[in-house]
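Mods, move this if it's the wrong board.
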Amino acid sequence: MPASELLWAYVLAVALLTVTPGVDTLLVVRNTARGGLRDGVVSSAGICCGLFVHATLSAVGISLILVQTAWAFSVLKWAGAGYLIWLGLTSLRQAIKPGQPSVVESAGPVQSVRIGRSLREGVFSNVLNPKTALFYMAFLPQFIDPQGPAFAQSIGLASIHFLLAMLWQCGLALVVVKSHKVVVSQHLKRVLHGVTGGVFVGFGARLAVTQP
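Not the wrong board. Structure tokens:
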């Protein structure tokens, strides 16, 4: 695991990523409205389990590169820095983009949905999301100690992401159950995108100037 100051930086960045509205958030809200709290919680579990798939693939890629040469690892970090800066600038652009509030209504009776279906939808939603895969390949390397086991470190970091995401998404599911509709205001979305974008640009810049 990284040093304490780097670990807190990771927790901050992952927390911001988790609370920023996206595909995972919409899936949890939709499935909770469809099948109740259990549907939302199981969907969240599937989404969060998908994080370990990305962490494993990232660790395998990092390990193979480390086995090859040190300069290849530097190339990976440079590529990651560029991606994080691009991701941050994209978020900042969304922060200033005009739009309407997102409203998700839970109209109609709650359906009976099989747990397997909800879990499957959550896993596929996360595993097949190229943005999550690219994020893990770009983000995790700067918190991995090249002298230590990449796989164990990646799984440990993914576990932190798992816990944060489960807490947020299950809380969101509970809010949906207690309310007839959820309104995500445009102002809140802009603030979240703005803060997240700034953090990612900062991480990318720091990664670009840090020696491996």
